Amino acid sequence: MNLQRISGVLPYMPERIQKKLNHAVFLEELQVEEIRLRADAPLSVGILGENCFVTEMGGITNHEKDACRVSKDEVQTAFLAICENSIYAHLEEIRQGFLTLKGGHRVGICGKAVVENGKIKTFREISSLNFRIAQQMFGVADTLTESLVSGLAVQSALIVSPPQTGKTTLLRDTIRQISNRGFKVGVADDRGELGAMYQGRLQNDLGAQTDVIDNAPKGEAISLLLRTMSPAVIATDEIATKSDANAILLAHGTGVSVLATTHGESLDEVRKRKVLRPLFEYGVFSKAILLSRDFSNLDSVAEMQVISL
Q1: CA neighbor of 269 nearest in space, from 183, 163, 160, 184
Q2: Which of 30, 57, 96, 256 has a Cα-to-Cα distance from 44 of 20 to 30 A?
Q3: Residue 164: how many CB atoms within 10 A of its CB?
Q4: What confidence score (pLDDT) does residue 1 get?
Q5: What's the pLDDT score for residue 28?
């Protein structure tokens, strides 16, 4: 049932907001991907790639003027709830701009930042919260896993797609399946979206032989995994910086297979990107997987094209 998608995040929201969301999801049978609370702004939900608003009567509209508005106090109430009324205990996560909830749900945070030595230390005033609804999909990587695993080896692969097309979902299930086939996998989960660690426990199933470093820079996490956990495969999400690419080159140089993702509209575009060009020049990846999203079906990763490099 679609209410189950959001049942893990509703308790963190003010009662008024809970009631409206419950009503909207139940009546409209919505497949909600995210819920945004913005101070003195409309209550919005992401549904199958489209942003909509929730009305005062608990319906759905595309018109801002008909939307229920969220107060500044309600945003603050929700923020304190996700911090379990202890902001100090969650300072490091807040500094990163997000908190992970039980069940793997993730809350993005925006507001007036407190900056120290050029880096965000915390947020003094919270202006908006984005609740991203977690749902692990099992089996979406069946075909991909078969193409990557060959005997006692795993071929390295780069998953390429535009935002919100399911590449993290696909990578997560690929990790799970490869791990359950007996390969030790080290996961550098700097954004907490693969394992969704909560109080030291992974909220997502990443397989029986997977070790995760959560909330650390990719470069440091990959280096540490290589030194201490002897992985056969290193997996990480969203390669974007030179540091990310260098860490992957380090893993490749030690003979470890690499599974990774990156934003991109096409393989040609990704190949030409200055940061990623060395990965192709050194032949890090054996395969590229191109994805596009079928927004009519939230429970699938669609249009998967596997290209040998």
Answers
A1: 160
A2: 96
A3: 14
A4: 43
A5: 60
